[in-house]
Amino acid sequence: MSVGAGSARIAIVGLGPRSLGALEALVTHLAQVECRVTVDVFEPSDAPGAGPNFHPEESPLCLLNIPFRDIAIRPPAFSRCGSFAQWFAKRTGQQADPDSFPPRADLGRYLQARLDDLLDEAQGAITIISEKVTRIERSGAGWQVHAGDQPRALYDEVLLTPGQPETAADDQLAEWQDHASRSQGQLAQAYPAAQLARRACDWAGRTVAIRGLGLSTFDVLRVLTCGQGGSFDAQGYHPSGREPAAIYPLSLNGHSPFPKPATEALDARFDLQPSEMDRFSQAMAQAAVADPDTARAAINAVLKPVVTRILTDCGAAVPDGAVADWLQAEWTDAGSQEKDLSPIDTLRTGMALADGSRAPTIGYTVGQVWRKAQDALRAGYNPVETPAETAQALVGFDEGLKRYSYGPPLSAARELMALIHSGIVNMDLAVDPEFTMTDSGWTLETHGNTARVSIMIDAVLPAPDLSAIATAPVSTLAENDVLTPQAHGLAARTLPDGQVLDEQGRIVSQLCLLGRLALGSVIAVDSLHDCFGKSSERWAKGVRARQGLNN
Ligand SMILES: Cc1cc2nc3c(=O)[nH]c(=O)nc-3n(C[C@H](O)[C@H](O)[C@H](O)COP(=O)(O)OP(=O)(O)OC[C@H]3O[C@@H](n4cnc5c(N)ncnc54)[C@H](O)[C@@H]3O)c2cc1C
C-alpha cells in the first residue's frame, strides 16, 4: 500500500476497534499488490483505535466481559504487538491470569499499540484527522465529506464505523432529563465511568437508583463503591463511608445477567465437539436463508442434542422434551422461563451455576453453547442476505440469550451479592417500579416498597434504531433514506461486505457501513471479536475489487 498520484481516496468515519480491524484488513490485503490508496480516518476523540468503550483513561474498574483465556483478536502479521496476553506480560512483567477479566482501558492501550504498528506499516497512506464528520453527500461518482469548518476533498468511497452514535432519549429518559433540569434530582450517565466517579464524590450518604441491570450496572456499582474507597474481600464489602447510603438497581424484570463459568475447566464442559460445531455451522447457514419457522427448526435440531449431551455429562436430569420446551419458550418470549425467579434468586442461581456448585440448567447450557458458537453463527449468517422476518427471529434469539452468553465475571456477581448483604444495594424495587417525580428527585414504588432517590444513573445502552440516532452524518443519511432499516427493530441494510443498500435493495455505490448500525444485516456485532473478524476482511476485499486494485 503506498501513496501517490492517482491513488484511490477513502474516508473512514470513526476510529474505534471496528475501524482499526478494517484498516488492518485493508493493509494486509493490499500488501501483496503494488497499489495506491490513501485513507483519511476522521476521529474527534483523544482515543483513536480504542474508542470510548476501551478508552485508555477510562476507570480501571470497568472490566472486559471476556477473560484473558478467551480473548482472540489476533494481530496482523505486520504487527509487533503479539497477542493481548503477550503484550500485557511484556508491559507489566506479569503473566496474565487466564481466568481474570482485564480492565477495558488496558485493552484500549493494546489497541492503540496495534494502531501505531498499522500506521508504521502504511507508511503515510493513512492519516488520522481529529475532526467529527458532520455531513457526507454524493458528489459525482464519489462523496464529499464535511468535517470541521470546511468540506474535505472528494473521496472515492466512504466507510462508516461510528459505533453507537448519540441517540435521542427514549420517552422515560426525556421526561427525566426535563425533570432533573427543574428539580434537585440529578440524572447521570453511566459512561464515561471516570466522569461518573468524579460526580459520585458528592454522593456520600445519598440514595441512588440505576436504570438497567446489564453489564454496565456492574461498572456503575464498582464506581460507586470501590471508586469511592470501598473494597471487597472474601468477607464481603468494606465501606469507606464515602459511598451512597443506598443503591437501587432496576430493570423491567430485575434480573442480572448470569456470570460466565469461573474457570477454564468449568467452561470446557460447554465446549461443542468438532462434529457438533460442524452441524451447528451447517444449521446456521441453512437458517440464515430460510423462512423463520425453518430457521428456528434448524437451530433447535442442532441445539437439542448438544445441550442434552452436556447436561447428561454434567449429571443433570433432562426430562423428555424439556430442552425442546425451553427453546420453544425462548423463541416466543425470551427470558419467560425465568420470570418467576426473584432478582436475588436469579443472582444466587447464576453464581452457583458459574462456580459449578450447581449443575447446569437448560438455559445456562444453551447460553454457554451459544457463546461458544458465536463465530459459527457469524460465519453462517453474515455472508448471506437473510430474509427480514428470519433476521428478526435470529437477532431476537441472539439478543435474548445475551443474558447468558455475554455474562459478567463471577467476581462481579459476588460483588453485587456482597453489596446486598452489606445493605448498600437493595433489590426490593428492582422489578419495574412505578416512578413519581418529586422536588428532591424520584420516588420508586412497587409491591408496597417505596424509596426516595435523589440521583438516577442511566445504564441502558440504546438500541441501534436508525430513526433515533440524533447526530449527523448517520441521522441525515437515515432521514434522506440513504440508510434504511432492514425491518422493524433492525438496523441498516447492508451487503455482507458492508456496502449499503437502499430501500429498494439497490447498492448505494461507494458507501459502506460496518458494526452495530448494521445489526440484522449482520449478527452478534457487540463484540470485539466481531470487530477483527471476517466482515472487515470482506470490506477490504470489496475495496480492492471496486477500486480495480487487483494488480
Ligand atoms: C459500555 C460498553 C462496554 C463494552 N464492553 C465490551 C467488552 O467487554 N467486550 C466486548 O467484546 N465488547 C464490548 N462492548 C462492545 C463494543 O461496542 C465493541 O466491542 C466495540 O467497542 C465496537 O467498536 P466500534 O469501533 O464499532 O465502535 P466504537 O468503539 O464506539 O467507536 C466508534 C468511533 O467512531 C467515532 N465517531 C462516531 N461518530 C463520528 C463522526 N461523526 N465523525 C468522526 N468520528 C465519529 C467515535 O468517536 C468512536 O471513537 C462494549 C460496549 C459498550 C457500550
What is the CATH-assigned architecture of the largest domain?
3-Layer(bba) Sandwich
Instruction: Give the radius of gyration.
Output: 24 Å
Number of helices: 18
- The CATH homologous superfamily of the largest domain is named FAD/NAD(P)-binding domain
Share of residues in strands = 15-25%
Question: Briefly, what is this?
Answer:
It contains 18 helices and 18 strands. The chain is α/β, with parallel strands linked by helices.
Descriptive key words:
551 residues; alpha/beta; FAD/NAD(P)-binding domain; 3 domains; 4-stranded parallel beta sheet; 16% strand; binds flavin-adenine dinucleotide
Describe the structure.
- This protein has 551 residues and is of the alpha/beta class.
- It folds into 3 domains: 8-166 and 464-546, 3-Layer(bba) Sandwich (FAD/NAD(P)-binding domain); 171-256 and 408-458, FAD/NAD(P)-binding domain; 264-405, no CATH class.
- 38% of the residues lie in helices and 16% in strands.
- It has a 6-stranded mixed β-sheet, with helices on one face.
- Strand 5 (142-147) and strand 6 (150-155) form a beta hairpin.
- Bound molecules: flavin-adenine dinucleotide (FAD).
- Flavin-adenine dinucleotide is lined by residues 13-19, 42-45, 51-53, 64-66, 104, 132-133, 161-163, 165, 191, 216, 461, 473, 515, 526-528, 531.
